[in-house]
């Protein structure tokens, strides 16, 4: 088997490549990135004979697709704004594909994947991805489902990379149409900081106030659970408190609208300027607490009794007590590992169906959990009668 690791020079998907080196059966692991110098550094870090490096530019679609041909799967770690192009390349190459974001730009290539007999799963990291597995694990134990609450705490710096800064800006764009909740059969658009809810995350994170975010779980779970009668789906998230304070201030002052300002002889979006500063600043690149915390709650009925299921996850600490999970890597490994697991399952033919697939239709939750446990990432489940 061969895997093409697109964008694996990045801070997150290099962790996916490491996971493939450590756990997968791939015989060839190619790192394809526009930044070939950084990709070479990653290859040296991985230190495995199966790893090689190529320079690729997904804006040159036909050329990029030709480079991907012959690989069993493309593991796409590119940023949100490139996912439409990167998915086009994968579809035209005739490979299976999976990426981290899943914001919908991939859907237009469904027909090409079906023609090739291949599957593409947009959005499979921690969230979206693992969160859908958690929700389905709970929902599958109920006869009917009424409410689903997906929450996460992503404890990482505001701007440890340009793509992460882009994600932050995207999710709190005041005009973003995809920031929705699912309620009584309809998707309802909400503004940033809508519907605050206190979520009790495991230590060392504790209680956090979380707000609605524009993640794909809202849409995919509505599709997956329609036969169970689901009437409410809300997806929330938070970052470290200093990040949330900054984003709130940027929102309140209208800066997240990215108004164009003139600096000297150059015109540029104000939020873009702030993002450029944060990427280079100590404040933008560090935070006090690192890691990830997923929390999913499903409410429904089993044998006529109303039940509440809660599932949350834990991972090795970021304090240096577990090698390889120090500091920021406690965050980046959490995101990168599920992507690698999904890529191998696709390559091995363990995903049924072709075309663009939602995670709920592509993977078995318990199989994903089993693989996560091998890496020291655990699920914790509890049930209450209401």
UniProtKB/TrEMBL annotation:
Pfam families, per database record: Sacchrp_dh_C, Sacchrp_dh_NADP
Superkingdom of source: Bacteria
Ranges for domain Saccharopine dehydrogenase NADP binding: 3-100
Coiled-coil zones: none
Residues of the Saccharopine dehydrogenase-like C-terminal domain: 125-377
InterPro entries, per database record: NAD(P)-bd_dom_sf, Sacchrp_dh-like_C, Sacchrp_dh_NADP-bd
Entry protein name: Saccharopine dehydrogenase NADP-binding domain-containing protein
Species of provenance: Candidatus Egerieimonas intestinavium
